[in-house]
Specification:
This protein is mainly alpha-helical. It has 2 helices and no strands.
């Protein structure tokens, strides 16, 4: 893999990371809105929280790919 390919891959990962982080924030806001309602739908809350956790796992995976391995 040459340097430009690696750079393009890093750029794509950073863009994907930003999109996932935004989706994660949006889900957090949706969860807060449902929780604030008079009679919150517990099934919807569980689904939203599960989605949020899955996004967080994907975010962490991409962040790990972006951080170079440092051999100490």
């Amino acid at each position: 893999m040459n340097a430009s390919t690696k750079l393009n891959l890093d750029e794509m990962l950073r863009i994907r990371l930003a999109v996932l982080q935004r989706e994660h924030r949006d889900l957090d806001e949706a969860i807060q809105a449902v929780e604030a309602s008079v009679n919150p739908d517990q099934l919807m809350l569980r689904r939203l929280k599960k989605q949020k956790l899955q996004l967080k796992e994907r975010i962490v995976k991409i962040e790990d790919e972006l951080i170079p391995d440092i051999i100490a």
